[in-house]
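Backbone-to-sequence.
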């Protein structure tokens, strides 16, 4: 029997961090839309939160070493980026 610990070389920090950014973005946008329904300030808040989320996802992509989309970190960050972009569409469209 082989001695030693389990080793997994996959990078899970960056995909889970990206999904956490997406989740926080969604909660903040949803909370803003509930607190300020129909208020133009809600759109500005949504844009500011989206800019922060995009910056955080860009920083994660850079920190992960600019991974390709075919890697686990790259795919996680790409999915989260698409989710952030899709989440802000109601604020843009109206």
């Amino acid at each position: 029997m082989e001695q030693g610990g389990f080793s997994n070389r996959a990078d899970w920090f960056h995909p889970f961090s990206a999904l956490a950014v997406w989740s926080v973005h969604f909660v903040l946008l949803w909370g803003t839309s509930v607190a300020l329904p129909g208020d133009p300030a809600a759109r500005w808040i949504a844009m500011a939160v989206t800019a922060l989320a995009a910056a955080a996802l860009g920083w994660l992509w850079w920190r992960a070493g600019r991974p390709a989309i075919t890697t686990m970190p790259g795919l996680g960050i790409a999915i989260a980026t698409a989710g952030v972009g899709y989440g802000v569409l109601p604020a843009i469209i109206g």
